Amino acid sequence: MGSHARVPQVLPGRRRVTATDRARAAEWVRLAPADALPRGEAVAVDIGGERIAVFHTEDGYHALAGHCLHMAGELNEGEVDGGEVVCPLHAWRYDLATGARTDRRGQSVAVYPTDVRDGWLYLALPASEQGQ
Question: Which residues pair with 44 in a beta bridge?
Fold first, then answer.
């Protein structure tokens, strides 16, 4: 599982986007046609100097910070197991919906809201990353 893409060119699936998600997002970035990322696959994208791992699972799309907190393993290269991604280097586990480590409390990676509109996959960047 996993691949690497430079800059926005990614994937499909749906996650319900709330009004809170939209309000917090400073900018929605159009990544790729929604059917470009097959279900069960993941890809890494670089946006504004940040690596982001995007996953298309049975329950839609998920986007997390691209690197594991331990030794910066590429999360898009990890296996997805029951709503979690397992880092390919040392098996640290992260919840795809929340970014929280599931094998140890108190640590998490950033999560980016996703949405599919008019056949395109979008990812929301927080205010601190806009304009890069």
Answer: 4, 53
Query: pLDDT per residue over 60-115, tens digit each?
Result: 999 999 999 998 899 999 999 989 999 999 999 999 999 999 988 889 999 999 99
Whole-number Å distance between alpha carbons of 52 and 36: 16
Transcribe 38-72 into DSSP letters: -TT-EEEEEETTEEEEEEEETTEEEEEESB-TTT-
Residues making up the chain, counted from first to last: 132
Alpha helix segments (H runs only) across the chain: 19-24
Q: Is residue 132 part of a domain?
A: no
Residue 116 sits in a domain whose CATH number is 2.102.10.10
Q: 36-71: string of b/e by CB count within 10 Å (b at 16+)? A: bbeeebbbbbebeeebbbbbbbeebbbbbbbbbeee
Q: What percent of the chain has pLDDT over 90?
A: 64
Domain total of the chain: 1
